[in-house]
From TrEMBL, chain B:
Record's keyword terms, sorted: Cell membrane, Membrane, Transmembrane, Transmembrane helix, Transport
Keyword Cell membrane tagged: yes
Family: Belongs to the binding-protein-dependent transport system permease family.
InterPro entries, sorted: MetI-like, MetI-like_sf
Entry-linked SUPFAM superfamilies: MetI-like
Residues covered by the ABC transmembrane type-1 domain: 68-248
Organism, as annotated: Paralcaligenes ureilyticus
Recorded superkingdom: Bacteria
Protein name: NitT/TauT family transport system permease protein/taurine transport system permease protein
Automatic annotation (TrEMBL), chains C, D:
Protein's UniProt name: NitT/TauT family transport system ATP-binding protein
Organism superkingdom: Bacteria
GO molecular function: ATP binding; ATP hydrolysis activity
Record-stated family: Belongs to the ABC transporter superfamily.
TrEMBL record, chain E:
Main location: membrane
SUPFAM superfamilies for this protein: MetI-like
Transmembrane spans: 12-31, 43-62, 74-94, 114-140, 200-221, 227-249
Entry's localization field: Cell membrane
Name of the protein: NitT/TauT family transport system permease protein
PANTHER family hit by this protein: ABC TRANSPORTER PERMEASE PROTEIN MJ0413-RELATED, ALKANE SULFONATE ABC TRANSPORTER-RELATED, MEMBRANE SUBUNIT
Family to which the UniProt record says this protein belongs: Belongs to the binding-protein-dependent transport system permease family.
Residue ranges constituting the ABC transmembrane type-1 domain according to the UniProt record: 66-246
Topology in membrane: Multi-pass membrane protein
Family matches, as Gene3D superfamilies: MetI-like
Amino acid sequence: KDLQEVRIGSQPALFSTLPFLVAEEKGWWKDVGLKVTITNFPAGAPQIAASRSWDVGIVGSVPAVLGAARFGLHTIALAEDQSAVNALYVHGPDSDNYIRDPATIKGKTIYLTGNSTGDLAARYCLKKFGLTKDDTTIRSMDQAQIVSAMSSGSVEIGALWAPNTYTVEEKAGAKLLCSGKDAGVLIPGNVVVRAEWGNAHPHRVAAFLAVYLRAQRWLEANRKDALVLMKKYYAAGGVTISEAAMNKEFDRRPTFNLVQQLALFSRGSQPSRVDTIMNIIASFSKEVGSLRADEPLPDPKSYITDKYLKLVNGDPKLKSFADLNGSGKGQ
Amino acid sequence: MTMAARDRSGRTQVGIAVVFTVVGSWYLGSKYGLINPQLFPTPEQFIAAGRQLALGEGYAGGLLLQHVLQSVKLILLGFFAATVIGVPLGLWMGWSRKAEALVGPVFLLIRPIPALAWIPLAIVWLGLGDAAKIMILLLAAFVPSVINSFTGVRNIPQAIIEASQMLGIRGWLLVKEVIVPGALPSIFTGVRLSLQVCLTALVAAELLGAPLGLGKILYQAGLDIYPAMILAGMVTVAIVGFALTAVFDYVERLSMPWRTRN
Amino acid sequence: MSNIVFSNVSRSFRREGKNFLALDDITFSVQEKEFVAVVGPSGCGKTTCLRMAAGLEFVSNGSVAVGGKEVKAPGPERAVVFQQFALFPWKTVSENIRFGLRSLRVPRNEAEDRIRCNIRLMGLEGYESAYPHQLSGGMQQRVAIARAYVLNPTVLLMDEPFGALDAQTRTVMQEELLRVGRANPRTVMFITHAVEEAVYLADRVVVMTRRPGRIREIINIKSIRDAEGWQQYERIEDVMDLESFVHLRTQIWRLLREQNERVAN
Amino acid sequence: MSNIVFSNVSRSFRREGKNFLALDDITFSVQEKEFVAVVGPSGCGKTTCLRMAAGLEFVSNGSVAVGGKEVKAPGPERAVVFQQFALFPWKTVSENIRFGLRSLRVPRNEAEDRIRCNIRLMGLEGYESAYPHQLSGGMQQRVAIARAYVLNPTVLLMDEPFGALDAQTRTVMQEELLRVGRANPRTVMFITHAVEEAVYLADRVVVMTRRPGRIREIINIKSIRDAEGWQQYERIEDVMDLESFVHLRTQIWRLLREQNERVAN
Amino acid sequence: MGERLTKAQTIGFSITGMLFFFGIWVFAAWVKLAPREFLPFPWDVVGEGLKLLIIPFSGLTLQDHLAASIGRFMSGFFLAAAVGVPLGLLMGWYRWLDNIMTPLFDGLRFIAPIAWVPFAALWFGAGIGGPTLIIFAGAFPPCLINAYRGSLFVEQTFIEAAQVYGASGIRIVYEVLLPASLPSIIAGLRVGAGAGWQSLIGAELIAANSGIGLMMVRAQAALDTPIVMVGMIATGIFGVLIDFGLGGIEGWLNRNRGR
Ligand SMILES: Nc1ncnc2c1ncn2[C@@H]1O[C@H](COP(=O)(O)OP(=O)(O)OP(=O)(O)O)[C@@H](O)[C@H]1O
Ligand SMILES: Nc1ncnc2c1ncn2[C@@H]1O[C@H](COP(=O)(O)OP(=O)(O)OP(=O)(O)O)[C@@H](O)[C@H]1O
Ligand SMILES: [Mg+2]
Ligand SMILES: [Mg+2]
């Protein structure tokens, strides 16, 4: 039987893209009639800029907004809740003081990667500490630079996301100051599709989604095997990660099953949960200027859709496939 | 065709005409949809970005002028460091075969390492201040100064050296009055290239958490996927490069009166 | 004392791993205040000889002495005029001429006097602050000669100094050299390709053979010149029409042609 | 028909915004199969004249015609031999010689024959696949001449072709040129600085004045040569000793010296 | 000029220089000028390099990363040479082309190759076109400039000789300008190869999923300084090799022409 092609845009060594490895190892792509090619990108910005070269993918929620506004990327599911792993870290002799009284970071310089989920978490943390935009100096740098600058002592406060968070925790002794979750903001990872491709091939999107959800369920259900795979996957991305950190990855990143996804996306008379979350993120993008003044906030209805989730839900085969336990298959 | 084809005077006028033609076809191309605005900004977008940067709310933490001043400061410091280290090193290597053998291999190995690759070490050794950024510029920009100063000395005609020996000139006087002026045209070629490299290495240097700067504009606009702003940044860099080179040309002409005809 | 003495000088160069002999057993001398011209086929080692006297090149065997002392290094008492002038392009005419005086530590006033005097001697007035590239070839060569003269060298070594000039300028320079030499004779070793030039200027002409360079013959011009009274003529063309001149010229020419034939066969 | 006719030619160049006259009202001609040498002070416009005949330079006024047709562009029927040889260093001897034949579209066999013949004529056998830098100056010049001869040009334009050679090689080349010219006479315009060379080689000598270049005099050599029977001598030095030769030489020399004086005063 | 050295002396001094360099390094590491994890000893780096030959980092071994980089490099460099050299030659001959190209080019040469990264992503997506564009941006200017200047300064007499002997237009370009400026062109290729290689590594630091640059940036994020240094040294060595290769050709050409 002919396999249908799907090009996936991904990033290496991320919890949210680990399911691709699971699916690969288990041969699930073939089971749903897909043949996938995965292209890795080092970060969200180049990934969405290059969105013409892939069809479906996982991106952070901040790039997802930009992708929606500029490149017609539709959010079709949430990869996970990353609020706990996008966080401000502190390092150095004063770090305990900062943790005891976060308001003392007033007047300091915070290094973060601009226009990212880390940026978002950091700004909500500052809000929570009662600090305004002008109370601290914000500098933008790539994650790798923040990691080395922090561990060599030139940066006291930096915003990072996993797995860089574990690197600074374990190798440099940096301490968690405040995560997005602590600050009360929900930061998802988004499953996105190029709109016109999705419209042309809705069934491939649904099949892809089913596999992704199924792999997430499998990871949840088989922690021990999952840790082995994860170690291997992270190593392939150049990240060596401890057992403890891997467990934290699982604990700090809740995922959603099909039922939960449908609930998150369902719009009654009011906006759905996802609409609300993404609106927060879009306003953040506007605030930091990555959405330009002349660009309107994208209307959630225009790019957030549960069309493909419903396709999965409506197809008994896919539905039971996505729900690992229900299908009785796997393992 | 013979003489005329190889006489390059009167270029300015043609150059201006060419720039106008290019801008014109860009405008028409965008207007009639031959250029996809998602892939390349339209003139309107470009002007809007330029206005935002220069006059409006600014971008990447500041207004155009602030960015330019910050970057020019960094370029001049890096350029100064690169030439102050590179030119004497090149002269020394050119003059002494021992020095060439001693320093050459290390220089050869360090030379191909791109400016960006030094970032981790620059951060660790010098932190995130101007020192680290200048180190990045220095490492990239001292190479042409060394190479051209070196070849400048090596290409001083043997007869000139022998004439000085015959006249009994040696030591510091020889360096000052013969070696340096003899190598000067080549030194200037190298130093001019160093200046150009400083501009191209600026993006790398300003990845180190710069508060302002042209490199930062380009970096930020890349993150924001803002093609019009990238283009505005590029055009600014080109103009700054042009201006600095023009100043440089003037200094060069003043420094070598024996080369200006009549 | 300022004579130049070559005693059994030989010189070999390494080329492509092999030693090859460039100069073989050269013995001749230039007496004090004598003008000796050296002619010979291209590549016979004329320049090498001159460079040895200058201290820019070393003997493999034998010795070169100037003023009774063996030559070890270059120095301003043995001024060289190079074929390609070797002026410093970044120095003006007067700076070029002054340069050698700086290492001699000549007092300032005296230095300026000597420079002015030599600039006049060479007809360079008005060009003191011109750069070499602004001068014609003949004028550049005059600067090079002034630069040598100003040092008051005991010995003057000239390697085809007029080789790069056109024929007309060349004759003017030759006459000038003769005029200056009569006023203030010096020990001169002069290399040339032009046989007429050698005969016209020199007291003696050394003819060398093709590789390896040996001395073929040394021809005394002075005795004939004095006997025939060439001095009475100001102009080179007047001298060149004299039968005595033509004969000497042809004699040397034949010696040189001999060399070419030897190679052709 | 292959004569060269300069009629009232003048040429001015722009320099520093000003027009200045380099050639003024030049009228002379080179008859078919005649060898005309042009001498004159440096910068008088000799090269400019030759380049006009070659089509590399244009007149400001007047006209230059070759074979009755006005010259408009360079072409292989008017072969030029340049002072610096201008051989292509990246081509072997035979490739250099072949270069011109390719644009003439000579059939392959004939081309090879002509190349072989000219290589023999110039004594270059065995050097067909050598690169120019592997040859001595004299041999390089022979290649340059072969490259011109192989085209069977009706007109040969030579700009100081022996200027860069040393005196000995030069005489050999002069004799060779004469030999080849006797066997196969052509229309030749020949520029030189060396008066002897002009007298030795040419049928007529054109003497030019200093800037602006004008024609000072045209001297007929052929009549004297034939009358005195120079042809009977093989060797240049034998001819140079003849009184008739010496007189012609001195006559031209004086004409040239006149020019220098005019400038000096 | 300093006196010439014998071969043995040259080698001796070179080794001394290298030892001096590594001596400073060891000393700095030994006195803990920076913490060991940021300033390892040279042997740590060598050990790490050997380890990387067998144990993959970021999915690939050192030689695989290097191969990925070299593959990209070749495509961009050859394109730069294939476009730059002929264009430069033609600019040297046809004045109108020169007048059109030079002002555009004069502006572009100040722009860092890595500044093209976002455009590369926009225009070429994830394909080979992106890295090719960036290497091209680095390698093209020297290729073009040297061919241009080389052909502009070809001695007039060669051109006139060619014209006199009946050549014109394109034939002059490929039979005279090209061979006459070949040494300059090779020198340009040499500089261009170096610049292209540097901009490639730079681009990989920002956007790629294999290659030496990627290896370095991942190692940096993982605080694995020895691997960063392995990457720098591998970059340096391969850069030297490219330079030697083209330098050899240059020397051979010059010798062939008796220079
Ligand atoms: N440094 C050197 N190394 C090797 N060979 C040399 C060196 N200097 C000179 N030679 C050789 O020694 C020989 C004599 O050279 P020299 O320059 O003295 O000749 P010359 O008589 O001055 O020739 P010309 O008339 O052409 O100037 C030549 O064969 C030359 O190649
Ligand atoms: N393209 C040019 N532009 C400006 N001036 C020129 C040009 N070509 C020649 N001249 C000038 O025209 C005059 C004649 O030059 P030309 O080269 O013909 O002299 P020449 O007699 O051949 O001199 P020489 O004997 O030194 O070769 C010179 O003053 C020269 O400077
Ligand atoms: Mg010599
Ligand atoms: Mg001329």
